[in-house]
Amino acid sequence: MTFEEVAPFEGLPPSSDYIPDDNEQRYIDRVEWLNDHPKWHRGTAFPHKSFNSDAFFLFDLGVVILDEPVAGLGAAPKVGTLPTLGVLDTITKKAKNDTLFTNVGYGLNKVLPFLEGTTTIVAVTSFGLSPNCTGVDGAYRVDEADDLTWLADVLAGNP
Which spans in 14-134 are helix H? Predict the structure, then answer.
């Protein structure tokens, strides 16, 4: 994982060097490359235990817990806070049309859709219908009881 505005991929061995049948060496070379670059940070991924790719719109949530703290992150805007239960349900009537969200990045590249003016993460990007992210996209809200319970369990070390 990186916290750079633009991911530093310079020098990453290209996949074309390993086509058609050398995925094992590609993995070895890329792990070595990532380990040699201090702007990339190791972590452990925890996908939601009920995630099913055939029903991705349910439980499309995951967490990466870094192996070591990253110096210099500070608070916002790089680190978000979890929402309160049902916070999106409190946005009603005219406010529903006037409330803005800052959607930064896409999917696993940078999952930080904030309620504008806050560091509250209210959803994660779930899907996009165009290959270049210019079409219809969907977000998975994280202010529901089951998701907040799962997130609390993961953050407490009980995935």
Answer: 23-35, 93-98
How far does CA 13 lie from the centroid of its chain? 24
Q: Which candidate, 134, 121, 128, 127, places its Cα nearest to that of 58? A: 127
125 contacts: CB under 8 Å, gap ≥ 6: 103, 105, 106, 107, 111, 113, 137, 138, 139, 140
| pLDDT tens digits along 1-43 | 887 878 888 999 888 888 878 889 999 999 999 999 988 988 8
Q: What is the 3-state secondary structure (H, E, C) of 116-128?
A: CCCCEECEEEEEE
**What distance lies between CA 44 and its chain's CA centroid?**
13
The candidate with the shortest Cα–Cα distance to 1, out of 41, 50, 52, 56, is: 41
Pair type for strands 137-141 and 123-128: antiparallel
Q: Which of 76, 51, 55, 80 is nearest to 143 (CA)?
A: 80
Q: Which residue matches tokens 């925890």?
A: 46
What pTM, to 2 d.p., does this model score? 0.70
Q: Which token pair is 1?
A: 């994982």
Within 13 Å of residue 81, how many CA atoms lie on the same side as its CB?
Answer: 13
